[in-house]
UniProtKB/TrEMBL annotation, chains A, B:
PANTHER family for the chain: CARBOXYPEPTIDASE 1, METAL-DEPENDENT CARBOXYPEPTIDASE
InterPro entries on file: Peptidase_M32_Taq
Name under which the protein is recorded: Metal-dependent carboxypeptidase
Family from the record: Belongs to the peptidase M32 family.
Active-site annotation: E265 (proton donor/acceptor)
UniProt keyword annotations, A-Z: Carboxypeptidase, Hydrolase, Metal-binding, Metalloprotease, Protease, Zinc
Species, as recorded: Rubrivivax gelatinosus (strain NBRC 100245 / IL144)
Positions bound to Zn(2+): H264, H268, E294
GO biological process: proteolysis
Function field: Broad specificity carboxypetidase that releases amino acids sequentially from the C-terminus, including neutral, aromatic, polar and basic residues.
Length: 496, 496
């Protein structure tokens, strides 16, 4: 009856993975949002059992022949794209020997555990041996992946998060940024030093904060019939496309962090909620990549959320939530949201200095993986680059320096570039929108957000993994990643 | 090295079932407590996939030989008990042909779906054909189980919930109850007709209700580091022993229902939280049976929760939660909690008339499964037994008569007796406690609840599935189920 038996069998396997993965995702969300401390051990065992089960399904020896047979079957374009994505996932799961995966799990667990206390103690020397272990295993993994994919070792690691991304592309983009970013940061800081900004006066009732976050999520099109907002220590967007679980955290003395964090996660959430329903369960229906995912959260947080027209619309809502304050005037809120202040910490960085943190990490982790430098060389490089890019002195401050992120202890090497590529893609999407809708800014100022969502839905969300990232960008905006849009965005917003 | 390779392999299998079942339990709780409506379809598919997976593990053909080999291995007493429980679960999963299970799933889903609207419409005639289908399949299942277990058909169905329970035992116990219960109900109603009871005046803030419930759970020893309280439409005790998830529901105009429901579920919860940790994951560490589980919730709700000494201790807490009211006087609260009023609905029934509802259902579903009566015969029997046992007229009122419970549409036949056996066991446990601690009531009145919890922990909770129900009862209280304790309890509380 069917002309594509191998493909169909693979599709059934992936539906099964999707269904079992659903329980894993919900339990993962629960772990962060609900689980009491004594549930931890049993949950960890359950999650590990499920991870092993899913790994067993993707490494079933029968899949190799089935993938090969499916290549020869008469598949239409989306099915062929789906098969390409299946093979990507299959390769990722099958190329690494089990003992390497296990050694990595142990080394990263040990390193992350040590990092938690050593970071507090500023104990870089203590972390070095454990981090060297993690890096050695990352190099081992990179070498294996690099042979299979025919790319460089660092590219092989980036490929796990951003398929097909090359160091040539990152070098081109970051190289360009490097030319004008430090100067731009200095200029903006100088200019803002003459401004007065009022700080909102707390406390801000958590109930009111929660209501404001939910109201804002509704405004941004989040579907509460297909998702929730809860609280967790580290905000994230989890769950499954059919039931997206956002989290945020509240402080009594400050509300903008939670509000803008929620706006950020809502961008991730709308991507997930609008992946193509008819393909859900298949790799084709998954989000394209981490840089594209980040381009959605940053489209919401930076392009839209810090847009003067949007901020003006939020001002009365904020006043309604907490009572009138001079600090809630639209112009003052806008200043609060676009304050540029070079600092030590990446996650606290503003939109303008953020890429400097990422460029620095890229320029360290790439040679580290390629074997050109060693873990011991990191602090000196860190200090030099922080001085050069952001003009801050980090010498001896490991805690707020190379020990600040959990990524390296966890072996998440090759991920950092995605953050800034996402910011650049977001600027590129909005530039493309403006070309098609010259009155876009006026419409946003009028509270008309549908044009933004429609564009993102048509060009990004529903396209999921159908195209490569470059092809997706070309179809959406007429060109591959072009950092000129990001530069134009920053100059217009901060020097305009 | 090991002398019990078959047993050890089985134990590994059951640990795996426990771990994967953990995710199923948490997702099941989430479904009731959190899930937004559009998540339903994907969740149902995920749950079905997991159920199929777990079923596949227990029906792995290798298990039969392994169980047989393990019988011949040198096992100590708890391991032998564990093996017995493994075999029970294996038999339950393997004795039914897949096509029967599938036909049952379809028939009960259809019947339950129809029941939801037909119940509202009082449409018994409309339900009959679908209920006949469900009963026909239950008879088919009962016949297969009965052949395997060597017991009667109805016993085979009860065995799924209360292993080893015989109709001789139920007949003996319910037959005895039948002698004195209707007279007792009449006497209590007559006596209470002369009493004045004050009804608490609402509204009762939900936040205050939640805090009172949590405070009461703490008082009852619930470990909030190993569990939570949330809200769902139908309260239940879910989650896993390591992380117990209770739910309740709140009404603005009434708080006692939610409070006592929480006390009830806390009884279930403490059983789960105190199952033997060192055996968790093995069948031996699971709760003994549904009647024993119900004996814990009713020990908490009825024996302890409605104990005058406990109620007196609750009175100031209730007043602190909602403000002083004359209705919160201990004696009045006690009257509210022990009000006897024969009615149509089982779930709304008081402690005294509740068993009448169960006896009636037992006397209908037993002959129904044995083929002695048909679905069409139910209403006439129902009306006659309601008149005889409770003195109420249910003619023509199917909605509040045989259509009130979801059990039969779902094929849950053989479960009802557990509710009343649980109430009787609870009375028997407290009678045994009083024999060992003649000052028990004084200690409860002094707010000293530890002796109750210690007794239940030592005699019930930590014993889990180590013994048969009869042996558990004998070890705990010196005798198998003896309804005299329940009678004495009711007479002391309601006629004393």
């Amino acid at each position: 009856m069917t002309a594509t038996p191998a493909y169909d069998a693979l599709a059934t396997t992936w539906t099964r993975l999707h269904r079992l993965g659903h329980l894993q995702s919900i339990a993962g969300w629960d772990q962060s949002a609900n689980m009491p401390p004594k549930g931890n051990e049993a949950r960890a065992a359950a999650m590990a059992e499920m991870a092993a089960l899913l790994h067993g399904i993707v490494t079933d020896p029968a899949l190799a022949a089935r993938l090969q047979a499916a290549e020869a079957e008469p598949l239409d374009e989306p099915r062929r794209a789906n098969l390409r994505e299946m093979r990507r996932r299959w390769r990722a799961a099958n190329v690494l020997p089990t003992d390497l995966v296990e050694r990595q799990q142990m080394a990263t667990a040990r390193c992350e555990h040590a990092w938690r206390t050593q970071r507090e103690a500023n104990d870089w020397a203590g972390l070095v041996p454990k981090l060297k272990e993690v890096v050695a295993l990352a190099r081992e993994e990179a070498a294996l992946l690099s042979d299979t994919l025919g790319v460089s070792r660092y590219e092989a690691l980036m490929d796990r998060y951003e398929p097909g991304l090359t160091t040539a592309q990152v070098d081109r983009v970051f190289g360009e940024l490097r030319q004008w970013l430090p100067g731009l940061i200095r200029k903006v800081v100088e200019r803002q030093s003459r401004e007065t900004v009022l700080v909102p006066q707390g406390p801000f009732a958590r109930d009111a904060q929660r209501r404001l976050c939910e109201e804002t999520m509704r405004l941004l099109g989040f579907d509460f019939d297909a998702g929730r907002l809860d609280v967790s220590t580290h905000p994230f967007c989890g769950g499954v496309p059919e039931d997206v679980r956002l989290t945020t955290r509240f402080r009594d003395d400050e509300f903008l962090g939670s509000l803008m964090g929620t706006v950020h996660e809502t961008g991730h959430a709308r991507y997930e909620q609008n992946l193509p329903r008819e393909w859900l369960g298949q790799p084709l229906a998954e989000a394209r990549s981490m840089a594209i995912h980040e381009s959605q959260s940053l489209s919401f947080e930076m392009q839209l959320g810090c847009h003067p027209g949007f901020v003006a619309g939020m001002a009365p809502r904020i006043a309604a939530a907490f009572g009138e304050q001079p600090a809630f005037a639209p112009a003052n809120l806008q200043k609060l949201l676009t304050r540029v202040k070079p600092g030590f910490i990446r996650v606290d960085a503003d939109e303008v200095s953020y890429p400097a943190h990422v460029i620095l990490r890229y320029e360290i982790e790439r040679p580290l993986v390629e074997g050109e430098i060693e873990v011991e060389d990191i602090p000196a490089l860190w200090d030099a680059k922080m001085a050069e890019l952001l003009g801050v002195d980090t010498r001896g401050n490991f805690k707020d320096g190379p020990m600040q992120d959990v990524h390296w202890p966890l072996g998440l090497i090759g991920y950092f570039p995605c953050y800034s590529l996402g910011a650049m893609y977001a600027a590129q999407w909005f530039a493309a929108m403006r070309r098609g809708m010259p009155d876009l800014d006026a419409r946003i100022a009028a509270g008309e957000l549908a044009p933004v969502f429609d564009w993102l839905r048509d060009n990004i969300w529903t396209q999921a993994s159908r195209w490569s990232t470059d092809e997706l960008a070309r179809r959406a905006s007429g060109e591959v990643l072009n950092p000129a849009h990001f530069r134009a965005h920053l100059e217009a917003r901060y020097l305009g």
